[in-house]
């Protein structure tokens, strides 16, 4: 499967592409088709599927790989899989072409075309059970059948073990008191050397310590090899750093996994004492009190279990944006190109919509005088419907935004707190992990209600929500950087936000005019969305929410 790219002979990176984003995870795609066209006269078609991908910002398709050919079948389940790097924050376009293979030639033009399907990797992953069914198209006037795509995350040993130990009758090392013991764990490497992987806390003044339970990735403990030696050293802590060695023992992950039992009582041995003293038995014992292992859940586990991302947009309609009828305004609607607000909205929305099944997006404006009476509002619906501010798709949001610009009068001040609290109210009604809310605020950046916004964010950090702020225009965005909380976690009235939920990106960093503008929009989306998977995980973890099991597959239509 990994070699499918090599088969195509086109795995050579373009010059000047540079390193891409670090893939969050690898995904294996399984391809099946139903009711393909029959192109053979005397038997059924012999189908082959070819996968093409695009590089970020490029519209050119590159062959990624091919499945095997399945003889005489209109309902093939291909065995050879495609393994792709999956990045939530990128729009990863895929194209699947099907051919009826008539000869041994690798040249696809020598075979009959059976149809094709386009989608994004996010669309497959974001579908129920990460299973997407699409009609094949491409031959006018003919029904080409359907393609079924299934995405599976490749596990790279995501288990986390939780262990607790105690010790008995350790050697007394201190002249005046008892010892202050701690333990150091090492995993063994292929070459026989050892790498430190965990240190317990120090328990003061006792020869019978009980250490706190600790969690460690199984990978870190044994690199996935359950029979590899794990060495544990026991020390007496000294303030000056010259800790006294009490003794050591070895075990394996397989032994530890048996849990609390007589197998998991270890003699702590000091080899030098053992050599010197004939009657030396040990320097105490260490006992495993408890052992548990569970899989570390990933963003895809939650998406696959049905967690939906709800996307809300809030747009800055304050007068500092400039008069919308003037080309210098950030809100200027040119017949020739999208303005910064529209570009930012499209870049982020195009990716996030794959994870929202109803594709309905609430869209709000703030900082304008709204009809009929001209009062200033900080959370008005762009579609004019206060009871349901949701628009259909990103296209619907753009349309409502452009209509609003003609209806309202840009005013001020720039208050964020009302739209943050608006989304927080929705998020507070679904705390079970079935939904996660993302608020995109697009602003020219001069904020008037900093204290209230900080308080709103600190409160929102307890809820299943994240906030993305895109700053447009040339203002100084110091206040936004403070809200981002990457360096210093945001706080309000002495309360610190329990999670970092804000990501701020200045739009101008991605504005290269001309033909490269598409590439910079992909860069903007990447930067803006990169933190969402970890923010979603931090919420689920803090609340102890496990991903739901994958919903059962719909019964397959019989061939």
From TrEMBL:
GO cellular component: plasma membrane
Single GO biological process annotation from the record: cellular response to calcium ion
UniProt-listed SUPFAM superfamilies: C2 domain (Calcium/lipid-binding domain, CaLB), vWA-like
Segments passing through the bilayer: none
Keyword Protein biosynthesis: no
Domain C2: 9-136, 143-266
Stretches the record annotates as Disordered: 1-23
GO molecular function terms attached to this record: calcium-dependent phospholipid binding; metal ion binding
Keyword Aminoacyl-tRNA synthetase: no
Purpose: Probable calcium-dependent phospholipid-binding protein that may play a role in calcium-mediated intracellular processes.
PANTHER family listed in its UniProt record: COPINE, COPINE-5
Family that this chain belongs to: Belongs to the copine family.
Protein name: Copine-8
Annotated source species: Eulacestoma nigropectus
Gene from which this protein is expressed: Cpne5
């Amino acid at each position: 499967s990994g070699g499918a790219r090599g088969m195509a002979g086109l795995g050579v990176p373009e010059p000047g592409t540079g390193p891409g984003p670090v893939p969050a995870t690898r995904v294996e795609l399984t391809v099946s088709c139903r009711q393909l066209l029959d192109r053979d006269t005397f038997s059924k078609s012999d189908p082959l599927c070819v996968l093409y991908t695009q590089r970020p910002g490029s519209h050119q398709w590159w062959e990624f790989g091919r499945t095997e050919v399945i003889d005489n079948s209109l309902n093939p389940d291909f065995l050879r899989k495609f393994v792709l790097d999956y990045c939530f924050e990128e729009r990863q376009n895929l194209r699947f072409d099907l051919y009826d293979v008539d000869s041994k030639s690798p040249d696809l033009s020598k075979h009959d075309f059976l149809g094709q399907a386009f989608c994004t990797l996010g669309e497959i992953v974001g579908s129920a059970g990460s299973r997407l069914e699409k009609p094949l198209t491409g031959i006018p006037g003919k029904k080409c059948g359907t393609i079924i795509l299934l995405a599976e995350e490749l596990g790279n040993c995501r288990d986390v073990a939780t262990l607790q130990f105690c010790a008995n009758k350790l050697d007394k090392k201190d002249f005046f008191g008892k010892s202050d013991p701690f333990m150091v764990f090492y995993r063994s490497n292929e070459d026989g050397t050892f790498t430190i992987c965990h240190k317990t806390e120090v328990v003061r003044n006792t020869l019978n310590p009980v250490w706190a339970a600790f969690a460690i990735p199984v990978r870190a403990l044994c690199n996935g090899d359950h029979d590899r030696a794990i060495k544990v050293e026991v020390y007496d802590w000294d303030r000056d750093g010259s800790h006294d060695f009490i003794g050591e023992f070895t075990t394996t992950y397989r032994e530890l996994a048996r849990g609390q039992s007589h197998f998991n009582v270890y003699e702590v041995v000091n080899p030098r004492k053992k050599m010197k003293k004939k009657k030396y038995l040990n320097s105490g014992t260490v006992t495993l009190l408890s052992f548990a292992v569970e899989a570390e859940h990933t963003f895809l586990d939650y998406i696959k279990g049905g967690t939906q991302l709800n996307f809300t947009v809030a747009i800055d309609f304050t007068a500092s944006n400039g008069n919308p009828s003037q080309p210098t305004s950030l809100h200027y609607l040119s017949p020739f190109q999208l303005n910064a607000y529209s570009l930012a909205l499209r870049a982020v929305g195009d990716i996030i919509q794959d994870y929202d099944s109803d594709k309905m997006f609430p869209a709000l404006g703030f900082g304008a005088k709204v009809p009929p009476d001209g009062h200033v509002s900080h959370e008005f619906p762009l579609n004019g419907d206060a009871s349901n501010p949701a628009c259909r798709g990103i296209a619907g949001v753009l349309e409502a935004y452009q209509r609003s610009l003609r209806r309202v009068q840009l005013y001020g001040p720039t208050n964020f707190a009302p739209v943050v609290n608006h989304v927080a109210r929705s998020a507070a009604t679904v705390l079970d992990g079935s939904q996660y809310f993302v608020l995109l605020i697009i602003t020219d950046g001069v904020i008037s209600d900093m204290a209230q916004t900080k308080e709103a964010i600190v409160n929102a950090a307890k809820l299943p929500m994240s906030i993305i702020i895109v700053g447009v225009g040339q203002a100084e965005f110091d206040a936004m950087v403070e809200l981002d909380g990457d360096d210093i976690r945001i706080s309000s009235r002495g309360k610190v936000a329990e999670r970092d939920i804000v990501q701020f990106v200045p739009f101008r960093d991605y504005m290269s005019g001309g033909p490269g503008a598409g590439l910079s929009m992909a860069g903007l989306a990447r930067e803006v969305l990169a933190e969402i998977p970890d923010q979603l995980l931090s919420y689920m973890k803090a609340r102890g929410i496990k991903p739901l099991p994958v919903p059962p597959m719909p019964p397959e239509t019989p061939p």
